[in-house]
Fold this sequence. Notes:
Layout: H1 2-23, E1 25-26, E2 29-30, H2 31-39, H3 42-65, H4 72-78, H5 89-103
Antiparallel strand pairs: 1-2
Amino acid sequence: xxxxxxxxxxxxxxxxxxxxxxxxxxxxxxxxxxxxxxxxxxxxxxxxxxxxxxxxxxxxxxxxxxxxxxxxxxxxxxxxxxxxxxxxxxxxxxxxxxxxxxxx
Length: 104
């Protein structure tokens, strides 16, 4: 019940913020129109291109440090080695019998 009330309160707050941003004028324009106007300036475009270049640089750096594991030939190298088994055939048979006995 508490989760439902919390969800409804959050949705009401989001709806109020959206209504404010799109419908309430702040001077001659709404908040949304101000933000769109700011995003169309040369400075904002420069910031966007700088952020894009930085993100590409970070992606390249991460790609160098972390090997690509999606290639099939590399997946073979990454499979865990099977530990040597100390069980004898007799131990395995007894274990199977115990498991069958437990399941019936």
